[in-house]
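Name: Cupin domain protein
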Amino acid sequence: MAIRIFHRDHPTLRLPLISKDARFVVWPGVGAWNANMNYVRLEPGEENVPHIHSLSEDTIFILEGEGTICDFTNDIEVPFRAGCVVHVPVGVKHAVKANRGTGIVSVGGPAPADVPLLKAVKALPADAEPPK
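Structure predicted for Cupin domain protein:
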């Protein structure tokens, strides 16, 4: 495999679980099993469906806006703003909320890619596995 270039405006997957405008740019659907890069826009008042990455850590860099990351596993909510990096450990149920009067633009995602979640939402076939 060679170096490739992807663009946020040409994603191969959009995932409404994350937001109305969640663009999967680098993910297993393009052959990247260990890296993941999503571009996500949340409108003011919008929030993720609470979810868990059972095998992955989630890292989210906030480019624009302010919001709150909700950690349902530990019953805490932490505010963030542009320039912050949100890190979610493996197995923590969480959701990002644009609940502070602005929208949010972020990049990042779970690493390694969350294959179980992608299979559950039928973005990958049930028998998809990383190459050995």
